[in-house]
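Appendix B, record 7
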Amino acid sequence: MRNNKPNPELIDDENPEWTEAMFSASKTAAELFPHLIKKSKKQPKVTFGQLTLKQINQLPETYQQDLVQAMNILLKGGCTHVFLFGSLAHGQINLTSDIDLAIQGCPKEQFFYLYGQLLRQLHHQV
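Structure tokens (predicted):
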């Protein structure tokens, strides 16, 4: 059972805690990027905060590329859920914006390898 009581030390305007509603609103990778993900019985969940597909398409191209690349790295590495949060998820990008990602279902032995891949392959800080 998930603890639904928020931790006040973790909440701020930029990074609110995830709620059950946010988790249930997450979409499969196939729904967001049908041209990249083949249909299968069990789809990993990917959510980009409150961004719609239209808003994702309006992001600077390097951020779009990084989101797709990050999703590919993490899903191929075995992660079952990928969540975007922070300023990018709210569409508030500036010159120093990083990409804040949370994951679930990552095999423990893969975590640091996948994090290293993100650091090496993305244009923006993670």
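Remarks on this record: Helices lie at 20-24, 29-32, 53-58, 61-76, 111-121. The chain has a mean pLDDT of 76.
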